[in-house]
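Q: What structure does this chain adopt?
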Amino acid sequence: MTTAHAITIVPAQVHVQVRIDGQTVAESDRALRLDETGLRPRYYLPAEDVRMDLLTPSERRTTCPFKGEASYWSVRVGDGLHENVAWSYPQPIPAATAITGLLCFYDERVDQTIS
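A:
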């Protein structure tokens, strides 16, 4: 017997700060928390709470059957380029419309603080 795969998206009700090389790249009290079967929770942030001036769109794309096609972003801080460290779903499938246009960072590749 297999366990059904599911995603849930809810207001995180926490403060999320993302730093790379000591620079604050994002800070939000409006994050959404996405829980997906078998994966760690992820925090999706409004673009208005992200230093978009530090982000550059990447050519990388991936497809998730539970969220849709993801677009990736690289972050430049000083002389360092952190490739494909964030992603977003510009047009997710109907079950994931709550995260449309929000950005998520690989918490294992940035300094992310949840408080």
